[in-house]
Design goal:
The complex is a heterodimer of chains A (about 150) and B (about 450).
Chain A: E1 2-8, H1 11-19, H2 25-31, E2 33-36, H3 38-43, E3 51-56, E4 59-67, E5 76-80, H4 83-88, E6 102-111, H5 118-126, E7 142-143
Parallel strand pairs in A: 1-5, 2-4
Antiparallel strand pairs in A: 1-6, 2-5, 3-4, 3-6
Chain B: E1 11-16, E2 28-33, E3 36-41, H1 45-51, E4 63-65, E5 71-73, H2 76-89, E6 93-97, H3 103-116, E7 119-122, H4 129-138, H5 145-151, E8 154-158, H6 162-165, H7 169-174, E9 190-194, H8 200-204, E10 207-209, H9 216-227, E11 236-237, E12 240-241, H10 242-253, E13 257-262, H11 264-267, H12 273-286, E14 291-296, H13 303-314, E15 320-321, E16 328-329, H14 336-341, E17 347-351, H15 355-358, H16 361-364, E18 372-376, E19 388-391, E20 401-404, E21 410-413, H17 426-445
Parallel strand pairs in B: 6-7, 6-17, 8-9, 8-13, 9-10, 13-14, 17-18, 18-19
Antiparallel strand pairs in B: 1-2, 2-3, 4-5, 4-19, 7-15, 11-12, 15-16, 20-21
The chains are: A alpha/beta (about 150), B alpha/beta (about 450).
Bound molecules: iron/sulfur cluster.
Iron/sulfur cluster (SF4) binds near residues 47 and 166 of chain B.
Chain lengths: ~150, ~450
């Protein structure tokens, strides 16, 4: 199904972000969510907390779905800002320094794939250090040493 | 869910300053037990979440990536030397962030940028940058929040939802408090919200004016026409019935003291800084009839401080490029997202900011190829991409410092509890880096 994506701050996502618990499931549950119009959800036979894959020109990511509180118009999806939303938003600044966070055309599909935790997501999408996915969890991974 | 009041504490520290949003509430009380914060009074939910935050993701020691790509604890000397050398040897470094640190640290940052020919940029580049451009285009009538509290009888919010983003804005400054000339608080004020969405702020306002998304410019222009006594042929402008606009302009014209606040809804939608230009001109026109002023709703507690500090040092508010040895500022050219999209930088340092949360994926992809440094208090998405991590302290909690509220009032934020043993303030870290860069430079000169 074709949709228009808007991203922005949500209080709940901001709450966990500032609390400093971005690696944990509670942050994933608050930020890796596509808030949709109920009618759109019915079209894809989606229930709350089912999973979708969302694809834009810039990338694709798996998210939970939930019913939007603001009951937006059909065809509109809201995703709280964060590492998941970032993957599909447009970097285009139109020479005005601000990337395009709102109004991104995208397509959504129902899926059974997993919604990744922050550490796994960053490793999978950017793969800077080529780490072993199984070792990445909801805790910081680092080596201690005696100083 | 009702939470029980906290009674188990042994010390109360009053008049602390919240270090989250641009309201900079400085009436916060911290409740301590055994020198640890166990409770917070007066702060809103998000402010409190930042003050009593989780410590299990706290960065406690400097970290450097080893050969396997795993972060490994190290000494300050090793981490600082490495960072200084990488920065010194790079051609196009970017120093980004600064929204959640003190002006004292920012000043140190500017010195480093000058010395290394770096680009100095903050979160304005992804939020209110376009508002600042508009202010530089046409100027803007300013006010302080204290004036609003004591004088304002009409308060207008455009494209902003403070009930969620700046939760105490209405209760502490604009709507509910009793003021010198507004003895009855809320009863003496008219609050109007203009927003495409029925936000929580709209819900507590006297009137909600719903207009079409991306038609801000049209709407403000129509209001200016009405103010000048022209009549409109259309029955509806930007989705708002003309009669409703006529009514609004009457209220605004007859205000004794009007305060207008606008948010990213205005400056990030189609038209960007031009929308703000138009809004400024509306406020200017209103001043022929009454006293009106305006303010952008700034996000972090010190984004405004960065713009002020950088403007006073260089003449430009953000995205300042020192690569030619003198400051240059060019929107779309010397600004972080554009630089990263063009794959230009060869060094990136984020100070109290998380690009992993804030930047588009395409933009972040450049950070895979260049050295990335993090100075922050908590492990976040950006840590997963950082080569060196320098653990810092929280301003207003563990470190003192100055921050500028959204209305450009500087506020001193005090230190309340001790920092974790091996963490250092941003100011300390940047001073150390500066000294090391000086030495590298001297070595090269000899
Ligand atoms: S309104 Fe802003 S400054 Fe005030 S307590 Fe809440 S987050 Fe902190």
């Amino acid at each position: 199904m074709k949709v228009m994506v808007n991203t922005g701050t949500s209080v709940i996502q901001a709450f966990y972000e500032k609390k400093g618990s971005t690696l944990k499931d509670e942050y994933r549950q608050s930020a890796a969510v596509a808030f949709m119009d109920l009618k759109d959800m019915q079209k894809l036979s989606l229930k709350s907390r089912d999973k979708i894959k969302i694809k834009s020109e810039w990338g694709e990511v798996v998210l939970y779905v939930d019913i939007s509180y603001d009951a937006p118009h059909e065809g509109m999806v809201f995703i709280p800002r964060g590492p998941w939303a970032n993957i599909i938003i447009s970097p285009e600044t139109y020479c005005c320094n601000v990337p395009t966070y709102k109004g991104i055309p995208a397509e959504i599909f129902k899926t059974d794939e997993d919604v990744l935790l922050v550490s796994q997501l960053m490793n999978k999408v950017y793969n800077k250090y080529n780490l072993d996915d199984d070792k990445l969890t909801d805790k910081p991974v680092y080596k201690k040493r005696m100083i | 869910m009702i939470e029980k009041p906290i009674t188990d504490y042994d010390e109360e520290v009053r008049n602390c300053s919240c270090s989250y949003c641009g309201n900079n509430c400085d009436d916060i009380t911290y409740l301590l037990k055994d020198k640890k914060i166990v409770g917070v009074r007066h702060a809103c939910r998000i402010g409190a979440s930042k003050i009593i935050n989780d410590q299990d993701q706290r960065l406690l020691n400097p970290l450097v990536r080893n050969d396997e790509g795993i972060l490994e604890e190290t000494t300050w000397d090793v981490a600082l030397d490495k960072t200084a050398r990488l920065l010194y040897e790079s051609d196009r470094p970017v120093l980004y962030g600064w929204g959640e640190t003190s002006v004292e640290a920012i000043k140190k940052g500017i010195k480093i940028a000058e010395k290394t020919g770096a680009v100095m940029d903050n979160q304005s580049t992804i939020c209110h940058g376009s508002s600042i451009q508009a202010f530089q285009n046409v100027g803007h009538p300013v006010m302080t929040l204290g004036e609003v509290k004591n004088r304002a009888d009409v308060v207008v919010y455009v494209g902003t939802n403070p009930m969620d983003d700046h939760p105490r804005h209405l209760s502490r400054y604009t709507t509910f408090p009793e003021g010198f000339f507004r003895k009855n608080g809320r009863k003496d004020r008219t609050v109007i919200t203009l927003d495409p969405k029925y936000t929580n702020t709209a819900k507590v306002s006297d009137e909600w004016i719903q207009f079409n998304m991306n038609e801000d410019y049209l709407l403000f222009d129509a209001l200016r026409m009405l103010l000048k006594g022209e009549s409109l042929d259309e029955e509806e402008i930007a989705g708002v019935p003309t009669s409703q606009l006529e009514n609004l302009i009457q209220i605004m014209k007859n205000a004794e003291y009007g305060a207008l606040f606008f948010g990213l809804g205005v400056s990030q939608t189609l038209g960007k800084q031009k929308n703000v230009d138009m809004l400024i001109q509306l406020v200017e026109d209103l001043n022929r009839y009454s006293k009106w002023s305006m303010l952008p709703m700034r996000g972090f507690f010190n984004v405004s401080g960065f713009n002020i500090a950088l403007t006073s040092e260089t003449g430009y508010p953000y995205g300042v490029d020192f690569s030619r040895g003198y400051p240059r500022f060019m929107v779309g050219e010397t600004t972080t997202i554009d630089l990263l999209n063009r794959r230009e930088p060869d060094f990136f340092m984020a100070i109290s900011a998380d690009p992993g949360v804030q930047f588009p994926g395409y933009t972040i992809k450049h950070l895979i190829n260049i050295p990335t440094i993090q100075i922050d208090t908590h492990w976040g998405p950006y840590t997963e991409l950082a080569d060196i991590v320098l653990p810092s302290t929280r301003v207003g909690v563990e470190t003192e410092g100055t921050a500028y509220r959204m209305d450009s009032i500087p506020l001193f934020m005090k230190k309340v509890i001790d920092k974790p043993e091996n963490c250092h303030s941003d100011e300390w870290i940047l001073t150390q880096l500066y000294e090391r860069i000086e030495i590298l430079k001297q070595e090269e000169d000899n």
